Amino acid sequence: MLRPLPGEKMAGRNGMILKPHFHKDWQRRVATWFNQPARKIRRRKARQAKARRIAPRPVTGPIRPVVRCPTVRYHTKVRLGRGFSLEELRMAGIHKKFARTIGIAVDPRRRNKSTEALQ
Fold first, then answer.
1. Any idea what the Cα angle at residue 19 is, between residues 15 and 25, rounded to 5°?
2. What is the model's pLDDT at position 9?
């Protein structure tokens, strides 16, 4: 049977561990946020570089139509839709493939139920 080395104490069954020094080396494990200002600058530069790279497309993502939410509960709320219909693009004189390259979202499933939406 193996015995603990002199000076080492083993925990016996369900008893208390005597003098548990678990927090001796806590300084190494502390996560600091001293790089927060530098990270802010790095994120800003990355945003500006991306804006230059994808210009003239919009930085915030493709342009989407404003639509009303379905059902009686939400039909007073407006939100961004999936994309413009093919008929709307045709009225604007833009081809669907070209629209995607310049940052306009296209939804081929979308139907125009009213003439007001096309104006």
1. 125
2. 63
Question: pLDDT (tens digit, 9 = 90+) per residue, 43-61?
Answer: 999 999 999 999 889 999 9
Entry pTM: 0.65
Q: Compute the distance between CA of residue 61 and CA of residue 40 in angstroms, rounded to an integer.
A: 21
Q: Which of 29, 110, 18, 104 is nearest to 61 (CA)?
A: 104
Report whether pLDDT(66) > 90. yes
Q: Let me know how many helices (H) and strands (E) the chain has, helices first.
A: 4, 2
Q: Where are the domains of the chain?
A: 60-117
Which token pair is 100?
């995607």
Q: What is the structure's pLDDT at 70?
A: 95
Q: Give the burial string for 93-113 (b: 16+ CB within 10 Å, else e).
A: ebeeeebeeebbbbeeebeee
